[in-house]
Amino acid sequence: MSENSNIQKQTKKLFAKLAKIVAPPPELSVSEWADLYRKLSSEASAEPGQWRTERAPYQKEIMDAINDPKTEEIVVMSSAQVGKTEIILNTVAYHVDYDPAPIMIIQPTVDLANTFSKTRLAPMLRDTPALKNKVADAKSRDSSNTIREKAFPGGVIMMVGANSPTGLSSRPVRILLADEVDRFPVSAGTEGDPLSLAVKRTNTFANRKKIFVSTPTIKGASRIEKAYEESTQEKWNLPCPSCDELQPLSWDQISFESVAMACKSCGSVHKEYEWKRGKGKWVANNPSSKIRGFHLNEMASPWKKWEEIITDFKRANKEGTESLKVWVNTSMGETWEERGESINSDALLEKTEDYSSEVPQSVGVLTCGVDVQDNRLEYEIVGWGLNRESWGIKYGIIMGDPGHEHVWEELDGVLNASYDREDGEKLQIMSTCIDSGGHHTKTVYDYCKKREINRVWAIKGQGGTGISFIKRPTRRQDSGVWLFTIGVDVGKDQVLSRLRATTEQHGYCHFPNDPTKGYDQDYFKGITSEHKVIRSKGGQTKHVWEKKRGHARNEPFDIRNYATAALEILNPDIDKIIESEGVVKPMVRKKKRKRARRT
């Protein structure tokens, strides 16, 4: 071989090496990038190590829709346990490393944004080598990296709360990731719909992407359901192992006994592993939409077995409506449709029963709720047993101006009295909540302050969604009293759920067939005086509690809510109390005979 030819050969090899060095990286989709570079952290994943999209193959199409130049908006309405947070994280990681852009992640609250940053984003940035040196250490003096804002070459990650108008009105963003949108408030302060505020941040980018993710809530008031209905409405389908008919995994086709699903076409019944080894496909119900929409339930998840889902359903069904609602939202990824607006007062009246003593044998704890009106106090004493089963003990009215001391002295007589149980045990009220709203706030504070040692608490109701039933108390500077804020809407949901419960479900409500104890027609009309209705505000629909037409008094409903709050504040171990007192709950109740309606 000539020297010239040798030089040419070496030159070709050199240019080939140079071409590899200077060549642009291969075009990668989000799922391809994740399969190559994403590492799962041990504190954030049950399966730490290299990410594998094939572990949950339904995730691939969702992630890769982000790379489709024709797709601007992506909607994911899903259950829990399907990896939707990892989809958000993979999207962030892809744009930090491969396609830099300003990114905004919205959580329902600022606190949740902080938690997401610390527990999900930070471990990913630390443990994924491709990202490790892209974002400065939060502990360094680099001001470009804080808990909720992290700069990287070519972009920035901003984490904001939907309750913060300041965060939502910050810099323009190209990638918008909104997590748990059904938990967003109706308005960010006084600025209006938080999702609309955030979407405006993307307007300056022609290649913008908007990804909305959530488990749904109530039908007619769910943001994610509304967005999904305007989308392609895609469902994850698997082929029948017998006839190859593609179909979604459907709860209606599940057999509890065999823990298997029947094919909707041929009727063949197959186990979970048989269905899941088939090659799945997303099937659109509305393919003409420009919005990609995906729906998933927990049955598709590799991390939740069907047997567990069946167990969860049985438990939720036994615990009552509120638990079943949560199961439908978080396991099926579906909205909950309210069955009727409220319960009928006559139906409760028909359920009244004869007590064999002032306090039935299965009661372990007594609580009290008190409402303050301008000319009276109204109260209810409620007995509680296992699984939040309740017994109405007494509903009373103390007439008189609450500004006069004798009215409160009479309430002292109620709260300090003993109440006889069937076994001869004398029970006392262990916790009381008194509403401090209205025109007698200072009087209530003064009364409760002196009796906090006896667990007599001042409370203040707060309406609206997303407000927990019991908030941590705050000490009032003006009076020194501890004040509990009560999420009254959550409490009313719970009361209504228990009023509807059957004898086989947790939380069943008993009432005495004794009008002299205060349980007359007026009481039952009062406890059923409100219903949930849909109202629209700022373009968003929501469910609110309102009085029914023709129902003037709703004090019994409010007061049962307060007595329930008193139990939750006390948080007693009723099982241990009942066991120590030798009280045995009957396993089977005799069917109550219907009694004539009282007048």
What are the salient characteristics of this protein?
nine-stranded mixed beta sheet, Rossmann fold, alpha/beta, TFA_Chaperone, GpA_ATPase, elongated, ATP binding, disordered C terminus, ten-stranded mixed beta sheet, Phage terminase large subunit family protein
CATH level-two architecture of the largest domain: 2-Layer Sandwich
Structural class estimated from helices and strands: alpha/beta
Q: Using DSSP, what is the number of strands?
A: 26
Q: How far is the N terminus from the C terminus?
A: 117 Å
CATH class of the largest domain, please? Alpha Beta
**Inertia-based shape:** elongated
Radius of gyration: 30 Å
The largest β sheet comes out as: 10 strands, mixed
Please bin the fraction of helical residues: 25-40%
CATH structural fold name of the largest domain: Nucleotidyltransferase, domain 5
> Beta-strand percentage?
15-25%
* Count of domain modules: 4
Low-confidence stretches are: 18-23, 586-599
